[in-house]
Q: What sequence folds into this?
């Protein structure tokens, strides 16, 4: 019996810069693993004034869509640099580590 991965799993997703930034801001659990200061401990949501800036690092598709982004998350004296990998169905993967000021 042969099993083949689905085409959706084999193909990368194509996200815009704005979509990548929104996805990161909407992932408080992932952000709290890198720095608990980014998330309010009472409400478990991302704090106000947390900013994300991403830029595409892979070959563009349709002008402004990419499969990978280099992103910087900042909040007061916390600065994180991470790699955002787009996946299908609006999924994504984050990799990175804390960067001290």
A:
């Amino acid at each position: 019996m042969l099993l083949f991965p689905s085409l959706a799993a084999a193909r990368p997703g194509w996200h815009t810069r704005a979509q990548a930034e929104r996805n990161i801001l909407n992932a408080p659990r992932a952000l709290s693993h890198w720095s608990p200061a980014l998330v309010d401990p009472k409400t478990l949501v991302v704090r106000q004034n947390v900013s994300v800036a991403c830029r595409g690092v892979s070959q563009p598709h349709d002008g402004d869509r990419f499969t990978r982004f280099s992103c910087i998350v900042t909040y007061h004296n916390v600065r994180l640099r991470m790699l955002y990998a787009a996946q299908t169905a609006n999924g994504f993967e984050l990799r990175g580590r804390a960067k001290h000021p």
